[in-house]
Design brief:
155 residues; alpha/beta; five-stranded mixed β-sheet
Length: 155
């Protein structure tokens, strides 16, 4: 469920959450994992239902949209060189600095809850998240990230 081509580590020059989401969605579209309307659907959903999550010492975003836009289930992962502002989940205006994004593109709505639980397990592991944020954009780091995700059955 994790395609190496859709792991972007230490991404640069992305100024805001819209650019981040657009870039990741474009990667998924290019790899034919999602339909072309996926990008607009993710952006609209993020506007209405923010996905920023603040943890102790780090913040992440968990953008997603309806399964009707998905061709093949995938989790796109991105870390940023510099954080961008996302609106915190269950808030309308509280901004948080996000450096890690897990974009969920899930075809089967039944699988959604199961995958979300596994992702949340990972997100609550401070040590694992620290490792993820420290990875650079080398092939070795991508391999290490995939091994780490395997521990959480997110491969």
């Amino acid at each position: 469920m994790i395609e190496k081509k859709i792991i972007k580590l230490k991404a640069k020059n992305l100024k805001d959450s819209k650019e981040v989401l657009s870039y990741l969605a474009d990667c998924l579209i290019e790899e034919k994992m999602v339909k072309p309307l996926f990008k607009n659907a993710v952006l609209e959903r993020e506007n209405s239902y923010p996905t920023g999550l603040q943890f102790e010492g780090y913040a992440i975003a968990l953008p997603h949209t309806d399964s009707e836009h998905v061709i093949k289930s995938q989790i796109a992962i991105m870390t940023l060189e510099k954080p961008v502002k996302f609106i915190e989940m269950a808030s309308t205006d509280k901004e948080i600095d996000v450096k890690t994004i897990f974009m969920l593109a899930l075809k089967d709505s039944n699988q959604h809850i199961k995958i979300l639980q596994k992702v949340m397990e990972l997100l609550q592991d401070k040590e694992a998240m620290s490792k993820i944020e420290s990875f650079d954009d080398s092939k070795e780091s991508v391999e290490k990230l995939i091994k780490l995700l395997e521990k959480y059955e997110l491969n």
